[in-house]
Each structure stands twice: as C-alpha cells, then as structure tokens.
Amino acid sequence: MPRAVDGTKRNARRKKILKQAKGYRGARSKLFKTAKEAVAKGLVYAYRDRKAKKRTFRRLWITRISAMCRENGITYSRFINGLLKADIKINRKALSNMAIEDPDVFKELISKAREALEK
To answer: Which CATH architecture has domain 8-118?
Structure first.
C-alpha cells in the first residue's frame, strides 16, 4: 500500500498552525516548522501573561493611590490601614479611578482614614 503524504488531515493541521502564526515576522509566519515553534511559545506566553496581568494592574493601582496619598500628606499603608479601621470596604481599582477622576471624594476618604487612625 502506498504511503500517503499529502492528505487532507495533514494539510488542515498545517493550515491551522500557519493561521495561528499570521502576523508573525519572516519565516515564523511562512514555514511550518518555525511557525509551529513560534505558536507554541506564543501560547505559553499568553497563558503566563494572563496571570501576570492581574499582578501588573494591581501594582499600577497601588502606585496611583500612593501618589495621591502622598500629595495629601499620608502614606499608602497608613491610608489603607485607616480605611480598614473605618470599616470602608472599597477595592484598589475603584480607589485608583477615584484618585484620578474624582480627587475631592478621594480627599474625603483620606480624612476619614485619618480620623479612624486617631481613634
């Protein structure tokens, strides 16, 4: 029985990989072997970075909150501690947006945190 070399399954598999490699530069989007390696690596990076994205955004939010706190004469850690003692439950994403979009309300939160720390 003759060996099948150009079957539809093989073509479909290769086509799928090359489609995933669309937009890659040079041989990585044209040659099957290099495209396969590039796609595999890309999927690993995608999986890893979906996890890292959460950490990165949390760091950004904390940096923004900290900057606004320092403008108003309080450190980030004391501000968060004050919010906990004042029993104000608000996440860092919302605090970050508030610091940018509505600084007056953020200043009120800072004063409430200060009051809770003094008690």
So the answer is: Orthogonal Bundle (1.10)
- Contact by Cβ (8 Å): 62, 95: no
Tokens read off for 67: 């900057």
Rounded CA separation 81/84 (Å): 5
Number of residues assigned to the chain = 119
Residue 12: CB partners within 8 Å, gap ≥ 6? none
Question: Could you tell me the residue ranges of all domains in the chain?
Answer: 8-118
Structure confidence by residue, pLDDT tens digits, 39-71: 999 999 999 999 999 999 999 999 999 999 999
Would the pTM of this model clear 0.70, i.e. be above it?
Answer: yes
Residue in 25, 16, 100 with CA at minimum distance from that of residue 65? 100
